[in-house]
Amino acid sequence: PPPFQPSICLTQEHLDDMNLNATKFLWPAEVDLVKWVLCTHEMAFSWEEVKIGQFHSDYFDPVVFPTIEHTLWQHKNILLAPALLDQVIQTICEKIQAGTYKPAQSAYQSSWFVVAKKNRTLCPVIDLQPLNGVMVKSSLVLPLTEHLIKSYRGHSCYLLLDFF
Fold first, then answer.
1. Residue 145 and residue 73: Cα distance in Å, rounded?
2. Which of 51, 59, 83, 110 is the most buried (most CB within 10 A)?
3. Taking phi first (over 0 means left), then psi (-120 to 50 degrees means alpha), and beta for anything else, what does residue 120 get?
4. pLDDT tens digit string along 8-54?
5. How many domains does the chain have?
6. How far apart are CA 118 and CA 91, in angstroms?
7. Same domain for 28 and 69?
8. pTM of the predicted model, to two decimals?
9. Is 126 helix (H, G, I), strand (E, B) or coil?
10. d(CA 149, CA 144)
C-alpha cells in the first residue's frame, strides 16, 4: 500500500490517537495496510459528534419499544456541582446540535448525571433503569452464527470500530 498521507478527515493526530499497534502485535507491513484501509474509508470516521450523522427515517423506521402497563415516573436529577454547570450546558447543547438529543414533551423524566472522561470532558449518563423495568422482554433466540463464521474460514477480515 502507498504511504500514509494525512488529509482533512484523517490527520496524523487522529492516527496517533488510535494507537494502532500499541501491543506490537502487527508487523510493520500490516500497520501500513491498516493505515491504507483507514485512508481509503476516511469518510466513515467522525472526530466530532456533530458530524456523526443518523440513519435517515426513509430507510429505517423508528424503533418502538413495547411496554407493560405502568405508572409514569418523574425522577429528580442528581445535583450538579455549580463549577460544572457551564460545561454541562455546553455538552447538552452540542448533543442537541448533533441530533443526539431531541425536543420532547414527555410525561416521563429519568434522572441523569455526568461522568468525567479521561480527556476531562463530561459524558452525560441517563438512568434508564425504570424503562428497563417496564419494557417487554424479547424472547427471540439469538441467530446461529456458526454457519456464517464457517463461510469466512481462511479469509482475511477487517473490523472497523467506533473510536469516537
1. 39
2. 110
3. left
4. 888 999 999 889 999 999 999 999 999 999 999 888 888 887 777 77
5. 2
6. 16
7. no
8. 0.60
9. strand
10. 10
